[in-house]
Design goal:
Length: 305
């Protein structure tokens, strides 16, 4: 029996995207071309495979049943080809899309850009929002190369690697009338606070850490990004509780000072995730190794800060 292997990536794109438009964009082809591929798939398998719904498409029961086999076959083909390829970072010309959470975007991404400039100047990065969950980041469909942050309940088609653990500290203005070289529990609870509401699990992690210690905060103002904090702190008597390396960066501002948290608030993990299709991709493996090295470097900095 003759069949076209090029049809199977189209099948998986439709299976994962559940949208002809998004699947065509992912494959870099037109919608009519993808519709033609779907018609040929239907002829091959003698099944509708995907049914139109109000929002996108839904796979048939048969499509659901064959998807794992096709995914495995494509992954084996990828592994066969990619393991034979050599990668030379200094000669590479490639675009990677990365979804960092707000913490990683400030702390790790500048280091990664600097490393690539020195070792792989032809590699370009495009950053996309991490979002409130992994679906929004594009990592689950494979359109995003790496997600960097905290991965909660990742699906089976993602590989997750732990990069580092990070702790928390406090920042106040340097001439604060009530805070000298430390903050005790009573002071912390009397102060008014700037609260950061980033997307994802960083927010939940801080609330959980405070709850575990029975520590209360009087939140005066909430902002959506770490970079809004310095100006808020510099002109008020407020306090902010932030990741240590964020505070370490803010300490370069002469208007601010960084202090240990009044109690041990524990740590939170920083992780890297990628779609299984990139497991044997030589360029992707090299990029992951660079990110992992930077994670080790940052972990040491966090311990020293």
């Amino acid at each position: 029996m003759k069949y076209d292997l090029n049809l199977f990536p189209a099948f998986m794109a439709l299976m994962e995207e559940r949208s002809v438009t998004r699947a065509a964009d992912r494959l870099g082809i037109t919608q009519p071309a993808l519709s033609n591929a779907l018609n040929r798939l239907r002829e091959t398998f003698r099944d509708p495979l995907f049914i139109r719904q109000r929002y996108g498409i839904a796979p048939t029961e048969f499509a659901e049943s064959i998807a794992p086999t096709i995914a495995t076959a494509l992954r084996q083909f990828d592994d066969l080809v990619l393991t034979q390829q050599e990668f030379h970072p200094e000669k590479a010309d490639r675009l990677f899309t990365i979804a960092p959470n707000s913490y990683v975007e400030i702390v790790l991404m500048p280091l990664l850009v600097a490393r690539l400039r020195e070792e792989a100047p032809g590699i370009r990065l495009r950053m996309t929002p991490f979002g409130s969950d992994l679906t929004e980041s594009g990592i689950m469909s494979g359109t995003t190369s790496l997600a960097l942050g905290r991965m909660v309940d990742p699906p089976d088609n993602l590989v997750v690697q732990h990069l580092m653990d990070e702790g928390l500290a406090c920042v106040v203005r340097v001439d604060h009338p009530d805070v000298q070289d430390s903050i005790d529990r009573a002071q912390y609870e009397r102060l008014r606070h700037v609260n950061v509401l980033p997307s994802g699990r960083l927010r939940a992690g801080l609330y959980q850490a405070l709850d575990r210690q029975g520590l209360r905060r009087k939140v005066a103002v909430s902002v959506t990004h770490f970079l809004a904090v310095p100006e808020m702190i510099a002109v008020t008597d407020y306090c902010a509780t932030l990741p240590r390396l964020i505070c370490h960066g803010f300490a370069r501002d002469s208007r601010l000072k960084v202090l240990p948290a009044p109690v041990d608030l524990g740590t939170f993990p920083v992780e890297m995730a990628w779609h299984v299709r990139y497991r044997q991709d030589a360029a992707h493996r090299w990029l992951r190794s660079v990110v992992a090295d930077l994670g080790k470097e940052l972990h040491q900095r966090s311990l020293e800060s």
